[in-house]
Write the structure tokens for this entry.
Amino acid sequence: MTSAAPAQPAEPHQPAPSDHHVPTGVDPSVPHSARVWDCLLGGKNHYAVDRQAAAAFEEAIPKVRAYARSGRGFLTRSVRYLAAEAGVRQFLDVGAGLPTAYNTHEIAQSVAPQSRIVYVDHDPMVLLHVGALLTSAPEGATAYVEADMRDTATVLGAASRTLDLSRPVGLVLSDVLGHIVADDEAHAVVRRLATALPTGSYLALSHATPGDPAAVAAQEAYNESGAIPYVLRDRETIARFFEGWELVEPGLVTWPRWRPDAATEQHEHVPGYAAVARLP
């Protein structure tokens, strides 16, 4: 396994938000998963309500911060694999979330500076910090598309201005499909995106699962808070996202067991499943 060192994370291009500064389109009265995730990862882009939600998760799941790092670790290792071993030079990161350490373009361009990356999200908070996602190496390119991932026609149309969709693309869906509540709709989004990609493209997908009863209870409480809900899915349902794709070894496994490196933390409970697959 290649162990090319990722680039150092970019410094935020915008100041951390205070509870008195609220960008247009951001509701600081209800928690938001991207901001809660940012809080759990040690970021600065969150409000009091997000910190309260993160604290509630941590009270119910003492290792939730380790779980968050575990999910981020899969993203790091899978993008590094795609750039270093699969030779992928184009990435479409859908549901990118807030910039944090080791964003997709930093990982890919640390291996191949000519890599081209398109981020997709529709969160106004992400748009506020989009500068940190657009710090491309001069040989490559990065772009941001503001769109709902369910609007795949808009996503693909805008992405095609930066990516050559006749050449292989690494499609990244990092723990984001849980925000589409209906299983059939979530699976359809992946199928529509895959239809536009050529043979030799890859899918790197992770999804949280109800492995720990405490995690299930905490997620249900979060979903009832007024926040955009996140649905935990079992392994069989997650496996259906890869129908039509060829799984790369070791297949669909828990986050920390996908090609772990020296920095990977292992857990007794299962926070989620992930895999990388190739489009035949």
Remarks:
- The first strand starts at residue 90 and ends at 94.
